[in-house]
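One-letter codes give the sequence; each number marks local geometry. A record appears below:


***
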Amino acid sequence: MEALKLATIDDLLSSPDEDLELINGDIVRRPMTRPLHGRAQGNTREELGWFNRRGGPDGWWIITEASVAYERNECPSHDLAGWRKSRLPTLPEGLIDLPPDWVCEIVSPGHERKDTQQIPLLLQRHQVPFYWLIWPEERKLVAHELQAGSFRVIATLDHRRNARVPPFEEMELDLGYILAGAPGAGSSEP
């Protein structure tokens, strides 16, 4: 019986294809971005722009398609990830090997298992404090916080209201814009 060989970050980096990530030792193709997914990702990044523009240790780096080297066999590319500038004063040029302070995945049809099971377990092992899941088709955001080593749901929100959501509770977020693409709570856009 032949032993299973897990792919490594070196294997991932040697591939000419940029649309790959390393999950549980398997090099996998990232799903094609659908319009609702892309809109939710871009709108979330834009809505959190104030934190990203903020200088000094109180600011954040908020990055889309952030490849994070957690372990030798784990290098996912997160839809959005954020680091407090107090922990990561400057961005590296290559892969980031420091776990983020916040991760947000936009759940893609057919990839729910990765976003709701595999990624949260990886983030828990690396003590990432906050994890958001955005379900664009349902216009829903579920925020998780790491408590006693496990993620606990701290908010389940939809597009009909604004909210202060950790770790960005300093500012009320326009969930109508993030989740439905229309500024202002109560948006009825499909």
Observations:
- Residues 186-190 have pLDDT under 50 and may be disordered.
- The first strand starts at residue 20 and ends at 23.
- The chain has one domain: 33-180.
- The CA atoms of residues 124 and 149 lie 6 Å apart.
